[in-house]
Inverse folding.
């Protein structure tokens, strides 16, 4: 018998003699790959109505196709031949992960199925590796199988798991990625989970009943609710947003006698947090995540085409939007001049939430606005814009981007008819929108082929606006759309996004990051031997990371990759004080100390090693923050850094044991304190 540790009495019967062995977390079962399995009797709780999560630690000992856990003709989680993780819902397409599970190694796998939202996701070691939307919802009343589908026809071929399974979990709700990272530890889940409304949901009412599922150890719940994220995130029972301690797993707001007695306000986002309390446990309270829900605004929202969209039309364009909260009628204003659309009034109201402007011109910016009427008042909408094919476009940083580095460079693609460009840039939205040549926001004329602009170091946490007017060969100017972005508080050192597979042009990652090729005492290899050279699946941010392969074997004791800095050599500007980088290892990696070194042209490198000598074996993305003072204390001149290096081996620790593995590096930045 395999007992249900949740206490819900979904115990299973062992069939085919799986063997109890030492597992990833305590005891586990070793399945023979032919007929061993666990048969769990059907319960209505196994047919998800809202959602489910399946999770397990797996140690496959061959690469055959196999079932991990699931309900035959229902849903489950399995492996394709070659150990490619898949999510199964009968009657819908499989969801395949982009990566394979290693053989003879422990991996944590999970699947979530949001039935109500028609979405499935797969996770490997706590990271999302596949997802898709689905409509099929099988209602099959079959037993649940672990190691093999119960009732699997022999004529369909072998689908039995060969290897060890441990800590198999099935939840009747959809866990988030952060929640899955908690259950990986194999302990009870102490935090509140399963928020209702879902985190980030639109809630179309001015009152709400908040609901959640209790953590495993909770006796009562501290409730926090407010309209400011920071206040809710840092709140204590002495704070204004503390709404009390209670035994119930629901809380009402928006009625007299409750929080927000006058009702929730349209257009407002509310934040809430549940801390789980058990006074008999010294770890209590367990601070919960901050969830949010929003009341739709009175104005129109969710425009289609989205605000700032490019290459729209020009024929058969349909504009649509989501009606404002409580609205009955809509008035549309449309044109190719922002001021005309923004100032327009007196349009004819309509009942539909779509509008056909008719044929449009190529290479042009258009503006539109929707006013909403709720039988009491009219609510003026925002002015949205889009451009048709051939227009100036593809702004970088992308329109509306946040957390942009303070050393960002602007770029764009020219309009089809452009012979030159006129660039305007500044921090005042309306001034930049209306700026003309000769104004302080005018950054000058640029020739065709000169579609970049370096604004210098920008202020942190500031929104900037910019506009590119295109000048044709006759000298006629075409006013461009207004773009914006908001900076973070960091300088970008390297994000690995600029590299391509064009090594002839010198754009491959290993042509900037120099590894151990041809160097006898350096076992590093940057990138893969064949394109794509950069890693495009295991990434922390953006679309690429750097794979750093190390081989400290056969007399080699150190592996290091280095990059010469041509820009951002002054690591004292804008008062930055920390070097930050993200990395991810693997359970199969050899234990080798990780280090970072920087150097000046006239001085030997100075080195900082990670405090955890086994950090290369951690198989989730981890952030390493190094105070720049740790380098300065060793005598380095931080105002003239020439080279940055990342390595594993004896340079980081003379007692390094030696071995090989792969580390992924991403998002190297300098942060203000």
């Amino acid at each position: 018998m395999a007992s249900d540790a949740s206490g819900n009495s979904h115990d299973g019967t062992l069939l085919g003699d799986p063997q109890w062995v030492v597992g990833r977390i305590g005891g586990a079962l070793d399945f023979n790959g032919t007929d061993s399995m666990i048969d769990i009797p059907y319960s209505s709780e196994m047919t998800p109505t809202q959602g489910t999560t399946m999770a397990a630690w797996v140690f496959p000992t061959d690469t055959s196709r196999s079932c991990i856990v699931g309900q035959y003709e229902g849903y489950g989680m399995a492996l394709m031949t070659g150990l490619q993780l898949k999510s199964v819902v009968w009657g819908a397409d499989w969801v395949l992960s982009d990566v394979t599970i290693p053989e003879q190694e422990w991996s944590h796998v999970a699947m979530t199925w949001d039935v109500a939202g028609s979405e499935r996701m797969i996770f490997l070691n706590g990271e999302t590796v596949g997802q898709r939307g689905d409509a099929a919802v099988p209602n099959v009343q079959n037993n649940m199988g672990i190691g093999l589908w119960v009732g699997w026809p022999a004529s369909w071929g072998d689908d039995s798991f060969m290897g060890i399974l441990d800590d198999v979990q099935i939840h009747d709700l959809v866990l988030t990625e952060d929640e899955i990272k908690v259950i990986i530890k194999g302990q009870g889940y102490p935090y509140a989970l399963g928020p209702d409304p879902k985190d980030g949901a639109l809630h179309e009412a001015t009152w709400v009943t908040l609901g959640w599922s209790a953590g495993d150890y909770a006796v009562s719940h501290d409730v926090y609710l407010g309209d400011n994220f920071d206040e809710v995130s840092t709140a204590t029972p002495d704070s204004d947003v503390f709404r009390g301690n209670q035994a119930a797993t629901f809380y009402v707001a928006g009625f007299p006698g409750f929080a927000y007695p006058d009702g929730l306000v349209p257009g407002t986002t509310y934040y809430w947090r549940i801390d789980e309390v058990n006074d008999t446990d010294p770890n209590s309270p367990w601070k919960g995540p901050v969830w949010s829900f929003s009341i739709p605004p009175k104005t129109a929202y969710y425009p289609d085409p989205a605000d700032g969209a490019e290459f729209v039309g020009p024929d058969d364009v349909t504009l649509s939007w989501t009606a404002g909260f409580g609205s009955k009628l809509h008035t549309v204003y449309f044109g190719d001049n922002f001021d005309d659309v923004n100032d327009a009034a007196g349009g004819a109201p309509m009942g539909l939430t779509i509008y056909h402007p008719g044929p449009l011109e190529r290479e042009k910016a258009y503006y539109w606005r929707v006013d909403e009427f709720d039988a009491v008042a009219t609510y003026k909408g925002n002015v949205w814009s889009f451009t048709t094919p051939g227009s100036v476009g593809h702004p970088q940083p992308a329109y509306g981007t946040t957390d942009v580095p303070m050393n960002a460079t602007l770029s764009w693609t020219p309009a089809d008819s452009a012979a030159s460009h006129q660039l305007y840039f500044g921090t005042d939205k309306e001034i930049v929108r209306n700026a003309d040549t000769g104004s302080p926001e005018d950054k000058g004329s640029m020739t065709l082929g000169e579609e970049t602009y370096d604004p210098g170091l920008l202020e942190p946490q500031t929104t900037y606006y910019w506009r590119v007017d295109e000048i044709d060969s006759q000298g006629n100017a075409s006013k461009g759309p207004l773009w914006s972005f908001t900076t973070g508080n960091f300088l970008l050192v390297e994000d690995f996004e600029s590299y391509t597979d064009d090594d002839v042009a010198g754009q491959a990652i290993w042509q900037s990051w120099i590894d151990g090729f041809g160097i006898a005492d350096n076992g590093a290899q940057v990138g893969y031997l064949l394109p794509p050279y950069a890693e495009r699946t295991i990434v922390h941010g953006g679309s690429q990371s750097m794979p750093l392969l190390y081989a400290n074997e056969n007399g080699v004791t150190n592996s290091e990759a280095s990059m010469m800095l041509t820009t951002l050599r002054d690591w004292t500007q804008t008062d930055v004080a920390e070097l930050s980088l993200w990395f991810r290892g693997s359970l199969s990696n050899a234990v080798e100390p990780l280090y970072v070194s920087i150097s000046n042209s006239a001085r030997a490198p100075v080195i900082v090693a990670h405090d955890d000598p086994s950090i290369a074996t951690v198989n989730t993305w981890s952030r390493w923050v190094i105070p720049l003072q740790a380098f300065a204390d060793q005598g380095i001149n931080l105002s003239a850094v020439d080279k940055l290096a990342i390595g594993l081996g004896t340079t980081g620790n003379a007692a390094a044991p030696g071995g090989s593995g792969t580390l992924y590096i991403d998002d190297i930045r300098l942060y203000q304190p």
